[in-house]
Amino acid sequence: MPAIDDLILFTQVIEHGSFSKVAELNGITKSVVSKRISKLEKELGVQLLYRTTRKLSLTEAGEVLNRRAKNLNQVAQSAFDAITGYSESMSGHIRMSVPTISGELLLANVVSDFCNRHPGLTVDMSMDNHFVDLVAENYDLVIRTGYLEDSSLIARHIFNSRWVICASPAYLDRNGVPQTPVALSRHNCLGYTHQSTGTFDWQFSHDNRLYTHKVSGNFASNNAAALKKAMLAGNGVAYLPTCLVYDELQKGELVEILAGHVGKVVGIYAVYPFTRTPSKRIQALIEHIREGYLAMKERF
């Protein structure tokens, strides 16, 4: 396996466009930089750079590697900053935003417990399913689900949330139990408008491959709790986070269906601005939140 230092050196060469500049930054010679890049290419079995006397350019393989590896240096610096920040006091104020479901079911207790453990600390936690602008709205930390596209932010993976398809026993008694995703065409599916794939484009798995299948129904909402109430009233089938319906499933008030076909697992992330070095209190809160999710993992 190639050395991480060589990957970081490769990304620096691309960033600065010069072996000489990278050599100067790292306190090594230009020939050492060249040899380490050549060593990396040999270990990977591909050419990464086109070298001419005037400029450097990426091969197709080099572009792929640079795209995947360019955050390594940032991640390493974040790890060092986390240790350095341990000299700070656990005091001050944290402004954060969290999803409504996780906020109500878990994070209100977890975050308030964190405040009680650190009397010099205060937290203002807003609950919103929309991705807020961290910098413009001056948030220190955001907990969010799904893929993060903004490269100006850093996301630390905390936990994976499994989703389930379910309905009430009364609804299934009236309409039958679908055995395949295709059979959902004969059912009233309740749509969650915050689904990244689309309100009625539900995600399934077959042979370890994910795909979407379009369903239809007469009711949709941006509030998952509203969909749960509609299900409990016997009005349809819904695809929701396990944590939201866990108690009802345990009591038999809702029944999970198509368990072998469900493919939706959503990552939960702690997000903070790349331009802002996370303080000790932010690092500690993220870890406390992660432990909270792990303690209730069967519900998620």
Main β-sheet: number of strands, strand sense, barrel status?
A: 9 strands, mixed
Shape assignment? globular
Oligomer, anyone?
single chain
* Total strand segments: 13
Order of helices and strands: HHHEEHHEHEEEHEEEEHEHEEH
Folded structure, characterized:
It is a single chain. With 300 residues, the protein is of the alpha/beta class. Helices cover 40% and strands 25% of the residues. Helix 1 packs across helix 3 and helix 6 (100-117) crosses helix 10 (280-295). The longest helix is centred in the middle third of the chain and has 18 residues, at 100-117. The mean pLDDT is 86.
Core attributes:
300 residues; alpha/beta; nine-stranded mixed β-sheet; two-stranded antiparallel ribbon; 13 strands
Quick synopsis:
This protein is of the alpha/beta class. The chain has helices at 4-16, 19-26, 30-44, 60-69, 72-84, 100-117, 169-175, 224-232, 242-251, 280-295; strands at residues 49-51, 56-58, 92-98, 121-127, 141-145, 153-167, 189-192, 201-206, 209-214, 219-221, 237-241, 255-257, 265-273.
Layout of helices and strands:
Elements (H helix, E strand, L loop, with lengths): L3 H13 L2 H8 L3 H15 L4 E3 L4 E3 L1 H10 L2 H13 L7 E7 L1 H18 L3 E7 L13 E5 L7 E15 L1 H7 L13 E4 L8 E6 L2 E6 L4 E3 L2 H9 L4 E5 H10 L3 E3 L7 E9 L6 H16 L5
Parallel strand pairs: 3-4, 3-5, 7-10, 7-11
Antiparallel strand pairs: 1-2, 5-13, 6-11, 6-12, 6-13, 8-9
